[in-house]
């Protein structure tokens, strides 16, 4: 089947001219929040008109107030926050020894394979084994993923899931003893980052039976004393966290310790107020975390699920704000799911599996639908027949929020049924496992995403340690329904200013997806701003990274490529003016494994006065 490339550009002009575009900026404030549950069916979203958004819509901080308590409890909370110990609040009561008041039943399943590896003497993460006997439990000698797992004790959940407690407890005690030897008291280093300490204390409290099953009374006393010392350290240092999500982890652990450790009432009141305030600083009005990371979204949901289990263990009702925030967090995560149920590759994430996402949503107890138009979080989603389009239509996260920030503005992913056609490389957050650390910077670059880059420069500067520099500061977005003869379509137009300072050009992308999901049309324009950049030539590359296991056949004229998907369907990609070349690429799956794939690249030398590129992805009948 041959498509007429000359007909591509007129087709992109369907419908009326767009109205003034909504401007997204990380520094502006929203006028109003979007609805968390779309009224349309999950299979089609073109049965109602989408109203244009007001200017000034942006990533914004949600406002949640601490729980309402009586005057006496407010005084206790204030005194504890000022450093007054619980014993001073009731001087006539004998101070109790550290002890747990309840046993928690975790709602989150662990990974039995990783737990089995622990029993065999290895930490297992992203397919890489690390012998427990050779693990350095102090100093910065672990890769970031292993550092988070080892010092955060997230492996306890995996161990608990692989066998009965009598078989697992000796392993947990042995690793705990090996860890506590170089870390006898709270101190410095990766082990005492607030995020790691918060996750560690929460894991200890939830899986305490694995650590307290020994017949050795001294070991049990040492374990309980370590719980209390870590909680006291977090009380004093939670405000010095690495970022807001780390602070949320710290406050969650403090609250859990207040619920489960003896004489914890004052700590619980203190922790609840701090946690709700931190969550308000973490979450935008539509429920997306300000790091714009789906992995951060998952972490926040997991923390609240585990904390809710702690409340259930002591038969206490959590503050209503926590349930409200949990219900707010789930719909944006669903926005980034493809037809296979797995996660899209955004802001360092890999394609987290459908099984893990389904287990997380089930544990949350939240029944809802994806957000179609998560403007404040920054992602657009279009469901059309069996097709799913995901589009990054917002500035990257601010440096203080980013962990594995990526220069992905105006990139998109596209799937049909259970097959992913266009993807981003993803996996920067998994670097240090099977993905080498040296690739982390490259996986965060604009070229690792399905979008346009000029002279191989990033649209936003990619710095070390997961941070981002200058670049895209504003994104304009317009979304509308197109009605035409036969099937209608959804049209999204967005532009960013990431190349204005260097080249004087704005990148504008138009995507039009037919309602039956069989055709995605696109146009990428470089539009001059003012009088800058009028002379000379620049190199432009449009990259379309392909999903795994797709077979390719290039057309004779060089403008088209046929894609044969694993499900047997055939698609054709056509360029409107420049040849399409095939290059190597990689894609990170949900286990952090890098899979070799290909990418379609449209390269051209164009004048600095600007140019446009049209293209078409169509299912062949």
Architecture blueprint of SSEs:
Blueprint: H1 8-11, E1 22-24, H2 71-81, H3 86-89, H4 112-119, E2 122-125, E3 128-131, H5 144-152, H6 155-162, H7 165-180, H8 194-206, H9 208-211, H10 217-237, H11 244-260, H12 265-282, H13 294-313, H14 320-335, H15 354-364, E4 373-374, E5 379-384, E6 387-392, E7 412-416, E8 419-423, H16 440-443, E9 452-454, E10 475-482, E11 489-496, H17 500-503, E12 505-514, E13 519-528, E14 537-546, E15 551-554, E16 560-564, E17 570-575, E18 580-588, E19 594-607, E20 611-619
Helix pairs in contact: 2-12, 4-6, 5-8, 6-7, 8-10, 8-11, 10-11, 11-12, 11-13, 13-14
Describe the structure.
With 621 residues, the chain is α+β, with helices and mostly antiparallel strands. The protein has two domains: 20-60 and 347-619, Distorted Sandwich (Beta-galactosidase, Chain A, domain 5); 71-282, Glycosyltransferase (Alpha/alpha barrel). 30% of the residues lie in helices and 21% in strands. It has helices spanning 8-11, 71-81, 86-89, 112-119, 144-152, 155-162, 165-180, 194-206, 208-211, 217-237, 244-260, 265-282, 294-313, 320-335, 354-364, 440-443, 500-503, and strands spanning 22-24, 122-125, 128-131, 373-374, 379-384, 387-392, 412-416, 419-423, 452-454, 475-482, 489-496, 505-514, 519-528, 537-546, 551-554, 560-564, 570-575, 580-588, 594-607, 611-619. The strands form three sheets. It has a nine-stranded antiparallel sheet with strand order 1-10-11-12-13-20-17-16-15. A hairpin with a 2-residue loop joins β5 and β6. The chain is elongated.
């Amino acid at each position: 089947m041959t498509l007429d490339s000359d007909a591509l550009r007129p087709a992109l002009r369907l419908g009326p001219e767009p109205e003034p575009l909504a401007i997204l900026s990380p520094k502006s404030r929203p006028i109003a929040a979007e609805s968390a549950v779309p009224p349309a069916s999950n299979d089609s979203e073109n049965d109602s008109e989408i109203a244009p958004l007001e200017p000034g819509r942006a990533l914004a901080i949600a406002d949640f107030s601490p729980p309402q308590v009586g005057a006496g409890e407010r005084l206790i909370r204030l005194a504890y926050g000022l450093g007054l110990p619980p014993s001073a609040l009731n001087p006539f009561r004998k101070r109790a020894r550290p002890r747990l008041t309840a046993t928690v039943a975790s709602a989150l399943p662990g990974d039995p394979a990783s737990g089995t590896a622990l029993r065999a003497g290895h930490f297992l993460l992203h397919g890489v084994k690390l012998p427990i006997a050779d693990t350095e439990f102090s100093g910065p000698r672990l890769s970031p993923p292993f550092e988070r797992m080892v010092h955060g004790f997230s492996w306890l959940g995996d161990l608990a899931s692989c066998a009965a407690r009598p078989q697992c407890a000796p392993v947990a005690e042995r690793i705990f003893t090996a860890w506590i030897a170089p870390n006898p008291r709270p101190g410095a280093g990766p082990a005492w980052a607030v995020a790691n300490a918060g996750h560690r204390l929460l894991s200890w409290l939830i899986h305490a039976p694995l650590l307290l099953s020994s017949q050795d009374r001294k070991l049990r006393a040492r374990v309980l004393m370590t719980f209390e010392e870590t909680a006291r350290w977090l009380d004093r240092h939670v405000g010095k966290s690495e970022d807001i999500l780390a602070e949320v982890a710290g406050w969650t652990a403090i609250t859990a310790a207040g619920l489960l450790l003896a004489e914890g009432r004052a700590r619980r009141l203190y922790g609840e107020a701090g946690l709700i305030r931190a969550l308000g600083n973490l979450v935008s009005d539509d429920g997306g975390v300000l790091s714009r990371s789906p992995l951060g979204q998952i972490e926040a949901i997991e923390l609240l699920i585990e904390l809710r289990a702690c409340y259930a263990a002591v038969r206490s009702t959590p503050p209503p704000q926590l349930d409200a925030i949990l219900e707010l967090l789930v719909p944006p995560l669903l926005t980034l799911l493809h037809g296979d149920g797995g996660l899209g590759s955004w802001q360092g994430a890999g394609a987290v599996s459908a099984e893990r996402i389904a287990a997380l949503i089930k544990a949350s107890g939240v029944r809802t639908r994806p957000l179609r138009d998560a403007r404040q979080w920054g992602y657009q989603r279009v469901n059309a027949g069996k097709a799913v389009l995901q589009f990054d239509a917002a500035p990257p996260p601010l440096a203080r929020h980013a962990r594995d920030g990526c220069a992905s503005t105006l990139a998109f992913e596209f799937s049909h049924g259970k097959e992913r056609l266009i993807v981003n490389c993803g996996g920067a957050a998994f670097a240090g496992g099977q993905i080498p650390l040296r690739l982390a910077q490259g996986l965060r670059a604009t070229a690792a995403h399905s979008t346009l880059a000029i002279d191989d420069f990033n649209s936003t500067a990619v710095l070390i340690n997961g941070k981002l520099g200058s670049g895209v500061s504003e994104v304009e977005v317009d979304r509308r329904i197109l009605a035409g003869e036969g099937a209608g379509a959804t049209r999204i137009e967005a532009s960013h200013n990431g190349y204005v300072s260097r080249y004087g050009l704005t990148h504008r992308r138009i995507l039009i997806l037919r309602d039956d999901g069989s055709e995605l049309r696109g146009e990428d324009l470089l539009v001059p701003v003012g009088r800058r950049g009028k002379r000379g030539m620049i190199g432009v590359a449009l990259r379309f990274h392909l999903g795994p296991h797709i077979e390719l056949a290039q057309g004779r004229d060089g403008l088209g490529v046929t894609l044969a998907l694993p499900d047997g369907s055939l698609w054709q990609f056509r360029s409107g003016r420049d040849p399409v070349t095939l290059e190597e690429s990689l894609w990170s799956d949900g286990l952090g494994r890098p899979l070799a794939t290909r990418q379609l690249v449209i390269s051209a030398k164009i004048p600095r006065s600007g140019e446009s590129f049209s293209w078409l992805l169509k299912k062949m009948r």
